[in-house]
Write a structure and sequence with these properties.
CATH architecture of the largest domain: 3-Layer(aba) Sandwich
Number of domains: 2
Distance between the termini: 60 Å
CATH class of the largest domain: Alpha Beta
Strand order of the largest sheet: 5-6-8-7-9-12-10-11
CATH superfamily of the largest domain: Zn peptidases
Bound molecules: zinc ion
CATH topology of the largest domain: Aminopeptidase
Order of helices and strands: HEHEEHEHHEEEHHEHHEEHEHEH
Length: about 425
């Protein structure tokens, strides 16, 4: 391993990141921080830059918390600084590495063609095999390559389309994607769960045929395949894409634990602004890129969203965690004129979702009270593409695991979200007389 690093040092290659070296997080903690005072929002963000902190969560309402990952050498200093500011800080996760070990993908058996275990986190290759086998055996499905990631992986969309509706009208569509943030593994897993429902109907749900008749369904399980693979093989806490060389401010070795990459959900081109909830600094987790849509992954998604605008009613950009169903705008506190409609449909979805396993989701605007973030996919889908019902969905959990949800939660998360999506679809059928 030393040899590999030596080779890296010799070529000073900014993208030299041998995948065999898995980054460890022994003793890294996550603090839950109540800001208490309004001025502390600014102060806490400033501590982030000083100590190279990774913000897992920003407060989305007045009583919300910051969830902040801190390396062992800085824990005491950070807690002391927070206390002197008048904020309350407590340790939420004591050792990130032990949770990483618990949520590690397990070995699993190969399954029959066209099926995929819904109890596992799958690799990019396994996901593609699954998509290809569906398309080869199901004439109503199509696979579209939306574009190619920086490292050459295709960004795939699977489309379910049975032609015009039984009433002879042109289909409306629903568009969903996951995995824009690499470490949020539950998001692609749940998109795959929904693909499985539509393609294989494993529970013999009589509603599936109706949903396929009323809508075209577009699903992208992995918006950020490079980052996802790196989070599986290199750094479990990786969030961004794998862009390596913007700017001259920092060298690869100058970034510490947050080396390089662009936060794709700050890179979309509707009111793009790194100063608004993003960052100009490539070492930060929310680096917004050198300009709007600078990344091949966001370009591919933007093009896909723009090309379906005439008939797409709803768009879900799926993340974890926190259990939120939120709608634009992210870039401003002003509400869109049809906010009441978005709020209504969000409540229909989350009510159905709640009835599955009792999970409560908060419905609201992106910038609910305090935290804005420009350059998000939902703002682009609504503001630029003109898709009316555009949402960011933050899946579970709210408590114990954060990004590190173990595989045993995939089924329940899938059941819940799918129930919410089906309720949303039925409400759209009612509203649009489909
Ligand atoms: Zn996310």
């Amino acid at each position: 391993m030393k040899t590999i690093w030596l080779a890296c040092l010799l070529v000073v290659a900014v993208n030299c990141r041998p995948e065999s070296l898995e980054k460890r997080y022994d003793g890294h903690q996550v603090l839950k921080v109540f800001p208490n005072l309004l001025e502390n929002f600014k102060n806490i963000e400033a501590l982030g830059a000083k100590y190279n902190l990774d913000f897992w969560n920003h407060p989305k309402h007045q009583n919300g918390t910051y969830d902040i990952q801190v390396s062992p050498e800085h824990v005491t200093d950070v807690i002391n600084e927070l206390k002197s500011l008048g904020a309350d800080a407590s340790v939420w996760i004591h050792d990130i590495q032990s949770l990483i070990d618990e949520s590690r993908p397990s070995d699993h058996q190969k399954r029959a063609s066209g099926t995929l275990s819904m109890n596992h986190y799958h690799s990019y290759a396994e996901i593609n095999t699954f998509l290809n086998s569906i398309v080869s055996s199901n004439s109503h499905t199509h696979l579209d390559n939306l574009g190619t990631s920086l490292q050459g992986r295709s960004i795939n969309l699977i489309r379910f389309s049975t032609g015009s509706t039984s009433r002879g009208t042109h289909k409306k569509s629903i568009f969903m994607d996951g995995g824009i943030h690499a470490r949020e593994w539950i998001a692609p897993a749940v998109v795959l769960y929904m693909i499985d429902q539509l393609a294989n109907n494993p529970n013999n749900d009589p509603d599936i045929a109706n949903l396929l008749d009323k809508f075209d369904w577009y699903l992208v399980p992995l918006v950020n395949p490079d980052g996802y693979e790196y989070s599986r093989n290199g750094d479990r806490m990786w969030r961004k894409n794998m862009a390596s060389s913007y700017g001259t401010q920092h060298s690869f070795f100058g970034c510490g634990s947050n080396e390089m990459g662009v936060d794709l959900n700050r890179n979309f081109g509707y009111h793009w602004d790194p100063a608004n909830g993003g960052s100009f600094d490539q070492c930060q987790e929310t680096y917004a890129g050198p300009h709007a849509l600078s990344e091949p992954e966001t370009k591919a998604m933007a093009h896909a969203l723009d090309s379906v605008t005439s008939h797409t009613l709803a768009y879900l950009n799926i993340h974890s965690y926190g259990q939120y169903w939120i709608y634009p705008w992210g870039y401003t506190r002003h509400l869109p004129p049809d906010a009441a409609d978005l709020d209504h449909l969000g409540r229909v979805a989350t009510t159905a979702l709640y009835h599955v396993h009792g999970s409560r989701y908060t419905v609201g605007e992106d910038t609910v009270v305090l935290y804005s973030a420009a350059g998000g996919a939902d703002d682009y889908a609504k503001g630029h593409s003109g898709i009316k019902y555009a949402y960011t969905v933050e899946l579970g959990d709210t408590g114990k695991y954060g990004f590190l949800l173990p595989e045993r939660y995939i089924q329940t998360s899938g059941q819940e979200l799918w129930a919410g999506v089906k309720a949303m679809a039925h409400e759209l059928i009612r509203l649009y007389h489909l």
